[in-house]
Amino acid sequence: MRMYEIIEKKRDGFELSLDEINFFITEYCNNSIPDYQAAALLMAIFLRGMNERETADLTNVMANSGDRIDLSSIAGIKVDKHSTGGVGDKTTLILAPIVAACGIPVAKMSGRGLGHTGGTIDKLESIPGFNTSLSTEQFIDNVKSIGISIAGQTGNLAPADKKLYALRDVTATVNNTSLIASSIMSKKLASGADRIVLDVKTGSGAFMKTFEDSVELAKTMVKIGKNTGRKTIAVVTDMDIPLGFAVGNSLEIIEVIDTLKSKGPEDLKVVSFELAARMLELSGIGNIDECRARVSNAVESGKALSKFAELIENQGGNKDVINDSTLFPQPAYKLDFICEKPGYIQFMKTDQIGIASLVLGAGRETKESKIDYSAGIMFNKKTGDRVEAGESVAVLYTNREETLLHAVSLLKEAVVISELPHERKPLILAYIDSEGNIKK
């Protein structure tokens, strides 16, 4: 088999066989195929596309390129959740303890921040002492003992995806539905869950900017799940507005705790609780209405908050943060972002808000950047709210005083004020069932 012929075949619009896909991934990971040939095939795929079978085969082969975690020793159905990323998206840290408190095991491997989007692992590491670097054995043992564990992805989980993504990133071949879907789902398959709930974001703060593109991606990933034997559903949610009021690591953990105390922002509760209910439904413990009732009970009874405290303590963190937010790292500087004219917030350029938080130190400019866990933005107002001249729209926090003016200039461009009221969109825009059927 020759790489030249595989490139030529896809360039001319023909579908690749499983053997050809396997040859490409295996030999590229072995460094037997040079980057220039791999890039040529990626561009051919980008332009010509992949069908449903090819996409499923690519996903499976990438999942098999490294370690696959075996969760079979954990009793019960294991349901994983994945978000395509957003600003203020802290739903994992709310739904995971809720689901675990309902008796469903949660074995969650999460990632770090990427670009303007925050990462679950970075947020957890803002809790003093919290350890996200667990061995597979520790990870599984934690789930067996307390029903929940959240850890960073192992270094050898779907390594083909890591290598391919680095090449896609520099060859303008990232934004292809089959390549995006296989990238996400290969890691989900390798993580070992029995069933998968996908939160596909859409809007200015999401990777997919339009509803149509988000639905296409969601359907493609659901079909991959079906074709690889993993029951998968998707929920398309709005990311034209930050989720909750907090953007930044420790700020978001404090908001998570408030939400588990039934005091959090309504939009964050709506999305987190719905995703938790969908996870319970996939686990087979009841219909969606019954599962929504279980979610509400887990929060109102305090069981979900207790489970979060148990998670923190079990992974070396200081669980006293549950009742004392001063135990988090504290910023040296804060500044109010003041509204210059009266009106209504018509729109928030959510990706730019994420960048402003990154500038303050809450994210990474490069892989080597050190995160300031206390940095971020706490909003007082969001889309649709009335604001007066001189009123504080948000408070900026950082340990880098020199970043404040830059962050403020970004927010001035991101927060659009209008004289007329603006109605907020629904938070949950669509549901795609395990057969790929869409319900709005």
From TrEMBL:
Belongs to the thymidine/pyrimidine-nucleoside phosphorylase family. The keyword Repeat does not apply. Its EC number is 2.4.2.2. It comes from Ruminiclostridium cellulolyticum (strain ATCC 35319 / DSM 5812 / JCM 6584 / H10). The lineage of its organism: Bacteria, Bacillati, Bacillota, Clostridia, Eubacteriales. Keywords: Glycosyltransferase, Transferase. Catalyzes phosphorolysis of the pyrimidine nucleosides uridine, thymidine and 2'-deoxyuridine with the formation of the corresponding pyrimidine base and ribose-1-phosphate. This is Pyrimidine-nucleoside phosphorylase. Residues 344-418 form the Pyrimidine nucleoside phosphorylase C-terminal domain.
